[in-house]
């Protein structure tokens, strides 16, 4: 990897900043002062220091995105993708941890750590995914019970239990607001679970994965790097 890329991806500054630091002779690789910002290095074995501080190699990166509606959760598409939104991490080969529908908003993690993605998505690992939804229809205690037992989707699949909490019911408008916790991620699962009980999801936002809540300070389309503590929260 090029030194200037390595340093900009580890938050030292832009490639221009790195050039300036090289000019100042404050960067060393394995103890040797760097003279070329674009020199090649092996980030796993070489020791890079900037102003006497070691820059530790981070092989994996985890980003929390507040996904806006209108973008697709894949790495490549004819439409704008969640990867297109996030800049500064191009060399990491990011992928989304699961998919949110194009019209769904909220918490989506992007990473280059395939094992993490597998652990979070596997229903066997029981990682909770919490959604806030607006529903056309009156969600009742009976619906809550139905979800507790799992519901049968249009393709005959019987879901694992879902924990449904009624937040608000508007009898005049025949609409409801709910939170739903599920541990699976079948195609359009939340929408299809409500369809199974004769209702329609009109708005959907993921608000939590495991114990990691969507950061309330992130506007839609904003993103941030997750800290090691936050990453641990995801696996419940
Ligand atoms: N369930 C859905 O129906 N859509 C999503 O985007 C996520 C879960």
What small molecules are bound in this structure?
Answer: uracil
Which sequence of SSEs, written as H and E, runs from N to C? HHEEEEEHEEHEHEEHEEEH
Q: Identify the CATH homologous superfamily of the largest domain.
A: Pseudouridine synthase I, catalytic domain, N-terminal subdomain
Strand content: 25-35%
Arithmetic mean pLDDT? 95
Shape: elongated
Helix content: 10-25%
The count of β-strands is 13
Summed up, what is this model?
With 236 residues, this protein is an alpha+beta fold.
How would you characterize the overall build of this protein?
This protein is an alpha+beta fold and 236 residues long. The chain folds into three domains: 52 residues, RNA-binding S4 domain (Structural Genomics Hypothetical 15.5 Kd Protein In mrcA-pckA Intergenic Region, Chain A), CATH 3.10.290; 86 residues, 2-Layer Sandwich (Alpha-Beta Plaits); 82 residues, Alpha-Beta Plaits (2-Layer Sandwich), CATH 3.30.70.1560. 22% of the residues lie in helices and 27% in strands. Bound molecules: uracil. The site of uracil has 8 residues, from helix 6.
